[in-house]
Specification:
Elements: H1 3-23, H2 56-92, H3 94-108, H4 112-122, H5 127-153, H6 157-164, H7 169-177, H8 182-206, H9 217-224, H10 233-266
Helix pairs in contact: 1-2, 1-10, 2-3, 2-5, 2-8, 3-5, 4-5, 5-8, 6-7, 8-9, 8-10, 9-10
């Protein structure tokens, strides 16, 4: 099985778990059962229980829903803003390009984790902090992708022909440039989504992300830190799921890049 299929399998499993978590969990993810603390994986609890007796599988399914929702929403927000700014920079050029690239450089100098810590001092830690930190971190990435593509596409003959026929700047951008960005944006979306899942897990681990009792994979790792030697499954399960999700989206993104390069070579 090649890497593309592995990526599709891993992402497919993640999406299936996320959908399942919306409709079904074996137990209430937040139900505390003191008499079942540190129950090892078995028939009744497939992935065991944690230090509060909560079912790990149920929390993993619920956490998949939260982690993926945060990642997708943040990348869409950051991608939409970055793409719009990148199109403006690449198409208009001049001082617009200079201003927006300076803005991109300024945002890129602040990693998402530092942005989250800054936002946590303004708001209380939780979902909004993670969402806006990841979204702001993705704006300069999508801005540069859209700008570089727009600079190339706007010089192509069909764009020049449309301009000669009297097409407005807005029509040129929406009908001739933006549709040709779809491939590059799709690749970047997949790669950024892998990064967003990892950043969300890191922020929740640091305590500025998703707050208890709501589960997220990073939060589960933080809570399991003190019990790793007593109940290793509490560390291994969320860590493995985070790793597989990141690898899956990265494999998809890398293979889309390779497919585009092969297409350009044939052209």
């Amino acid at each position: 099985m090649n890497s593309r299929r592995w990526g599709m399998v891993l992402v497919g499993v993640l999406l299936a778990l996320t959908i399942l978590g919306w409709f079904y969990t074996p137990y209430d993810p937040n139900q505390i059962q003191v008499t079942r603390r540190f129950t090892p994986p078995g028939k009744e609890h497939l992935l065991g229980t944690d230090h509060f007796g909560r079912d790990v599988l149920s929390r993993m399914l619920s956490g998949a829903r939260i982690s993926l929702a945060v990642g997708v929403a943040a990348v869409i927000l950051g991608g939409a803003a970055g793409t719009a700014l990148g199109l403006a920079a690449g198409f208009l050029g001049g001082w617009w390009d200079e201003l927006l690239m300076r803005l991109s450089t300024s945002l890129q100098a602040l990693p998402s984790i530092l942005l989250a810590l800054l936002l946590a001092t303004i708001w209380s830690p939780g979902f909004p902090v993670v969402l806006w930190a990841i979204a702001l971190g993705n704006i300069p990435i999508f801005l540069r992708v859209a700008r570089n593509q727009a600079l190339s596409i706007k010089e192509r003959p069909y764009v020049e022909a449309a301009r000669a026929l009297g097409a407005s700047d807005l029509r040129l951008v929406l009908r001739h440039i933006l549709p040709n960005l779809q491939g590059a944006l799709l690749v970047q979306f997949s790669i950024s989504l892998a990064g967003a899942i990892l950043v969300e897990a890191s922020l929740s681990y640091l305590g500025v992300g998703i707050q208890p009792p709501d589960p997220s994979w990073g939060r589960m790792l933080r809570e399991a830190q003190a019990y790793g030697s007593l109940a290793p499954w509490l560390v291994l399960v969320p860590g493995l799921f985070i790793a597989l999700a990141v690898v899956g989206f990265n494999l998809l993104g890398d293979n889309w890049v390779f497919s585009r390069e092969q297409l350009y070579k044939r052209e």
